[in-house]
Amino acid sequence: MAEAFFIMHLPLTQYINIVLLFFMFISCYASNKPDVEGEALVEFLEALNDSNHRITDWNNFFVSPCFSWSHVACTNGNVVSLSLASNGFSGTLSPSITKLNFLVSLDLQNNNLSGVLPDFLSSMSRLQNLNLAHNSFSGSIPESWGELSSLKHLVMRGNNLSGSIPESLVKITGLKEVDVSWNNLTGTIPKELFSIPIFNFTSTHLTCGNNFHEPCVSSSSIPASNKSSKVQLAITIVSVGAFSLFLLGAVVICRQAHKLRDDIFVDVSGEDESKISLGQLKRFSLREMQLATDNFSESNIIGQGGFGRVYKGILMDNTRVAVKRLMDYHSPGGEAAFLREVHLISVAVHKNLLRLIGFCTTYTERILVYPFMQNLSVAYRLRDLKPGEKGLDWPTRKQIAFGAAHGLEYLHEHCNPRIIHRDVKAANILLDDDFEAVLGDFGLAKLVDTKLTHITTRVRGTMGHIAPEYLSTGKSSEKTDVFGYGITLLELVTGQRAIDFSRLEEDEDVLLLDHIKKLLREKRLEDIVDENLNSFDPKEVETVLQVAMLCTQGSPEDRPTMAQVVCMLQGVGLAERWAEWEQLEETRNQEFSLMSHKLIWAEDSTQDQEAVQLSQAR
């Protein structure tokens, strides 16, 4: 009773803390799923021997490692990546790691770990990237590692490994990289390993046997840098003696190239234009991104779409940023392809395009960092305002229409290669401090995963904004963006969504485009304009609506280019094209009326109605 009396008279904040601790205590014991991954990581860290106390936020309270632990990345509440490079560890690998059933990437390079390579890693069926380079591991590569069916990158350079390369590795069909250079390995290299994109067997005692594929010791698929042009060697193999000279030269090249691999982002000024140049972009670490976004806290989410989530964040220098965490992080071609596309985005510089500040890439993450836009998006200003916030008046909406058009024209006409946005909509048009339109998310379609299909133009976009030819064939063009822009113009005029199922209750069309066409036929302009607009110029609204109709024609050949759109918004060439559209629309309406008449006749006939229904698209 005394304890109860004491608790009841505590201050409210302390009482709440005690209650929370009580429920945390109960949940730890009552849960059917204890934090196995947290316990496993603590045990794993103990075996690593963190004598320098680099990692201080992994604790025995088993708070979920996905909540706030450093060097850990998670997906759907499961640990998928451990980035533990260069931490001064001097211990060994613990079998506790096998409790991380969803682990995709393990990076322990540049430590001083020792012992033999363990067989137990072979049970980690999801492991794709294993980097144990520059440690002190000894013994042979386990034969059982051939069971790592998902493995793509195996990097073991700079250890004390001996024995031969196990034949079992050739069973791993998805293997893309094997680097066992600078070890004491012996024997013959399995011939199948010469067919993978990246291999490095330099500075070992391995032989090529009869499997010689030029070059033998290493592949040429190594990222280039501005310094690599200094290391060039032309070798002609004319005799057995010349082969030894070639081997020596290749060793030098590979040592230099692998040294430069870590330096590629250090100094990009003056780099050869034929190489990947990242200009003033900053490469952020995953830890910086976690700190900036409070470990990607849901409370910091400011947007979500087909490419991933966007978080507001604050960098260490107090710069406010928007952090886009791409959903499909396995970009086609891996990191090199990702960097090429990031480069293309970064060189697209225009006042109506969102500037890229930097990026973060790991085995399991693809993250882009942009300036934070205080006024958020057009979609937010049209439909999601909080009480007291400023909406969009007509002059501002007209200004946004022009700005977005100029941004798309730049992507289509002035970028080399041209960039197709593929997801033009009000939510992807951001607003700067002066409410100028800033087009975001351009170029992202080529940064995401397309491994599920051989078609590189996998359909990306938002229903209601997607052009019909893109939806049916998966093939996009500049005219696909023109269609999306036309729908965006309708959003600006009406304030409504591209698809709105609430219109069903009013017996209206769900698609905004069809709804507006009907109102235009009935000449009900007053029912088209957003009710939140207190004043507007009817002539200007009419111009925007006409341009929108021309942009959203069913056939891409009939749509204008964005350069023509910019002119038509100013009234140049609009009257002629609008007259053509009205004539075509009248023909379409007549055909539709005739088709409807035939359908009505069919319903009254004695035809098999079930057969008619089954013949329709479904």
Characterization of this structure:
The chain has 618 residues and is α/β, with parallel strands linked by helices. Among the domains are: 1-32, no CATH class; 222-277, no CATH class. It is built from 17 helices and 20 strands. The strands form four sheets. A seven-stranded mixed beta sheet has the order 1-2-3-5-7-9-11. The chain has a six-stranded mixed beta sheet with strand order 13-17-18-16-15-14, with helices on both faces. A hairpin with a 5-residue loop joins strand 15 and strand 16 (320-326). Helix 9 (394-413) runs antiparallel to helix 15, helix 11 packs antiparallel against helix 14 and helix 14 crosses helix 16 (574-604). The longest helix has 31 residues, at 574-604. The relative contact order is 0.05. Residues 1-34, 211-215, 220-277, 448-458 and 599-618 have low confidence and may be disordered.
